[in-house]
## 1
Amino acid sequence: MERIEIFKGDITTLKVDAIVNAANKTLLGGAGVDGAIHRVAGKELLAECHTLNGCNTGEAKITKAYNLPCKFVIHTVGPIWYGGKNFEEDLLTSCYKKSLELAVNNNIETIAFPNISTGVYGFPKNKAAVIAISEIKKFLCNNKSIKKIIFATFDEENFKIYQHNLA
Ligand code: ADP
């Protein structure tokens, strides 16, 4: 538990080893947190993303962070919520798992996650938080190399949900 933190605010300000981007399958930028990350990182991030050939839902890819204060960006594609019968929960679990696997393989010790899929993609916020927290706790039980995982909440509703679920 002491390796988990909640932050409220803009994930692009965090000086961690890696921030996670809630990207779309093109990896070529979008709205919400994706737009914010590309705005701060600058054009070079977009250029590197162009070399990646996109990313499937539930998968993750890593890039450098350019003008961001972190060292890496891990881009993961969350599921669009279609009511829960399209493997949305499994795919969201996979986003956290695959992102953490990439982090470990790149010697990342501190990492911040946004509330993947809970913006434009419409995943119910509490359900998403329960999935995120349980996957991260499970991961930390079996991993000693990750020193800190930050849940970067942006809206008040998610902030309260994480406070409640981590209490
Ligand atoms: P998705 O398409 O995966 O739903 P969004 O970017 O629309 O992605 O939303 C994901 C979450 O990111 C939402 O909870 C939203 O409030 C949050 N968010 C938006 N901008 C930022 C930011 N700059 N830093 C951290 N979180 C953000």
## 2
Amino acid sequence: MDKKVCIVGLGYIGLPTAAVLADKGFSVHGVDVNKKAVNLINNGQVHIYEPDLENVVKKVVAAGKLSADIEPIKADVYILAVPTPFKENHKPDLTYVESATKSIIPYIEPGNLIILESTSPIGTTEKIVEWILNERTDLSVDEKKSNRIYVSHCPERVLPGKILKELIENDRIVGGINELSTNETAQFYETFVEGKVLQTNARTAELSKLTENAFRDVNIAFANELSMICDDLNIEVWELINLANHHPRVNILQPGPGVGGHCIAVDPWFIVDAAPEKSQLIHTARKVNDSKPHYIVKKVKEVSQNISNPTIACLGLSFKANIDDLRESPAVEIVKELTSIFNQTILVAEPHIEELPYSLKDYKIELTKTEDAINKADVVILLVDHDYFKAMDEEIFLNKIVIDTRGILKLGEKVVSNVI
Ligand code: SAJ
């Protein structure tokens, strides 16, 4: 563990990875363009919420095993963990991967291992090699040359909310640009991963990550489509799914207000972009899941039509339960759309954040305590299945119109409910 690791990108993946590696004994240098985050980390604090993360960061920073900066340093292993969003036309945006790669180029030495962890379109790992070798003609990826470097893709696969556990326990896929790169990378991950480290090539590793998230997207789309069918047919979708799932080979996922997060709502587009003619199902699933927030807004309009100036309360803003991450959140999309339809300020309760993000500052939204929001509301829309909401006494919903998009309320007959 005497290796020095430099991790570029200290977000939801980079920071936990840095903390876990430092905890295993590696000397870790974290890099991020966000100076505020860098300062916090150097103080043993964190800028994102993930269970237990702050404790580990505090410990490894105090032990001198993790430090952060805005610039990379010389290291044995470089890990790139930066965002790979898509552009307006759903085409992958590699700007961050490119700038992260360019930031380490001056520091790379023969024998270094460069790992791309960001979920990436097919061919990105090869592009990284190109960017490096264009600027550093003194380096090579020829397995026979002594000035060789190793370059691989090892996609992150951890679930927000369980990142620290899954970083250690999940199986990993390692795909190098050649066999030596794959071997070197596998050996590195085997030092801290308890799951299997599976070896392949870079392109297969890239597509396998996209495939995992597209698989989930397609399955959630099935559940979301069912929920809209059930709404038309006046059938309770949660009961339906529960019953169908008693079949030994059926396992339907849960419908919701749409699919959010920076992964599942994004990655399938990279497959569609790479093979548009062949990815009909994957493309349709994206469209079904993207349509769900608008469907919920339509339902809110319907149930409010007889109330003059209805007060609307939305419970939850994050993209899923028990986290503070609002990226690509369908709840945010719904709240924004509601502000354009209703005159009154939309009340929002999100127990995981203390203030509204800057991007919502111009909307007529008020962040309110959950109980206050419900008490004031005529219509309550439950958007996220936070434990906090699940633990509430359901009496509070009495005489409210409730749209429960997550199916968490066991609403009795006393409550006027619209469950979709
Ligand atoms: N969702 C539903 N119904 C479900 C399950 C999820 O509506 O039955 C929604 C969630 O509410 C959320 C979205 O889907 O809005 C995504 O949530 P998620 O928990 O399915 O996944 P993520 O985005 O938090 O993490 C996924 C994981 N991928 C898979 O499960 C295949 C994780 O392992 C990946 O590491 C992560 O994407 C990533 O970074 O790519």
